[in-house]
Design a protein that fits this description.
Length: 627
Amino acid sequence: MKNLIDVLTPKQRAFILLVIDSLIIIASLISAFSLRFPIDQGIMVIQTYWWLLLLTVAIRIGAFQSYGLYISIWRYASMKELVNVVKAITFSSFIIMAILFIAKGMSFPTSILIVDWAFNIIGIGGVRVMLRLFRDYSVARKNRHQTHGVDNVLIIGAGDAGETIVREMLRSSSHKYKIIGFIDDEPRKLGQHIHQISVLGTTEDIPKLCEKYDIDEAICAIPSLPGHQIRRIMQLCEKSKIGFRVTPGLNDIIDGKVSINQIREVQIEDLLGRDIIKTDISGISKYISGSTVLVTGAGGSIGSELCRQILHLSPSQLLLLDHAENHVYHIDMEIRNMGYNHVTIVPIVADVKNRERLESLFARYKPDLVFHAAAYKHVPLMEENVGEVIQNNIMGTQNILEMAHEHQVKNFVLISTDKAVNSTNCMGASKRACEIMMQSIAQYSQTKFSAVRFGNVLDSDGSVVPLFKKQIARGGPITVTHPDVIRFFMTIPEAVSLVIKAGALCVGGEIFILDMGEPVKILNLAKDMIHLSGLEEDRDIEIKFIGLRAGEKLYEELYFNKEELRKTEHKKIMIAQPPQYNADCVRSSIQALIAQVGVLDPEDLKAGLFNFISSKTPTELSQQKIA
């Protein structure tokens, strides 16, 4: 029977179902008459009301058509389709009742219509349920008898996501899985069943269950599981020499739905030492919608993601500024292909160090919002190029800050870094100087200035993750600076969503800080990436310690001890209250520092930079060596 059903076309299946429905409609009405009248009298009544049979069939079939009951794939009948069956039968019953009322003045027994309504629901709905059950039974029977090429699977998580995954596996004949059982750490679930599949044990039982049932793979169906738990389960699966995959995280699941097609390999983001933070930017689109938005460093990792997310918020113009021609070209081509034709995209090749060029751009385009992501960021490289980091990061930021103030930009958001806190390197010190400059100009400007300070972002250019990927691809070794070095990590999309959120929250001069949870040990990150590649450290890939590089330290911090923090409406975002600066002294000190680039040797220039950022009130710098 199943083969016959499968070879029929959709129109043929719909016709067969229509014929079956018509017979059920007739049988239901005759049965209703038979229950209402004695047999002899019932036959006479039916002969009298023969036209009602035809009318009922026509009206009900028309209602079924309008509710889409013949375009559904009925062997996948669901609760939604059953609800439509009830709606269609109820709707058609009211029409029939209205016709009878007009024609007979309600002399027709109402009880017949009520019984007929009930019989139709049982019959029409029952047929669809039976088709669904028959199909599920056929697939399950086939899967039970199929042993070649089938993987024995454990489902980790006996919750909603796990139930959905199992239901789809049981229904699908294209996925070669044999579900052995569930794993769940809630004691009350042990021994219970979902779709006749038992909860066999906890995650600690994975090794012995794998040996007992010859398990090939475990699928984690707990979308909210934190990174350290995923790492622990992955290690248990590696110990048991079985595969391990996951369902997508909560932020990747649309409308709370998860499907078998979304099961994927574990990614490094899954193993972060905290939950991925999702900042909803859809509710703050008003301050961007219809505005002209300038993004500096638009071709970089953060800048390009800023452009993508801002584009979704419908600005009138998006200005893509970067000093690298190729970067501008690539991000320009990418976002033009995203289909937002109502947004004017303006690619701009310009250097933030060129004040005259910036002046002409601000005068021409009059941006309402500025996101300043342009900066040199590679710590060891900038230790060897102190003058460049001062000119690009500090002088370039000063130019952008002053242009925003002079041209009355509404909002300005500076991208900062955790390396600005108690910095031991020139890059971090330059970003701290930018924070001070931003906070000093915010004291008197009508522009709402703010900064966002966060840790490392995964997969950004030059970060440790792509470096480790390249080293693994080459066969190793993976180079780690120190066995105890730790860093904060976040994904690029969540970092950018925070930046955009900051632009809406700022009043003036704030530094927004993300609660990033526990930092990640770089050595553990290296091991995780080796394992995710299907390899083992020492056996397949060597981990080599090379020592801390110039300017690096073992750990980073997100805020100074002296900074007063307060909460925001977002539970994961804090604000460092802005201190008071002498704006004139800040500007003159920065000008003096910039003027010494190319005059002082790098060490004296570096000393001047650190003297500036270490001053509680940066008025003493005029008495320093670079004055």
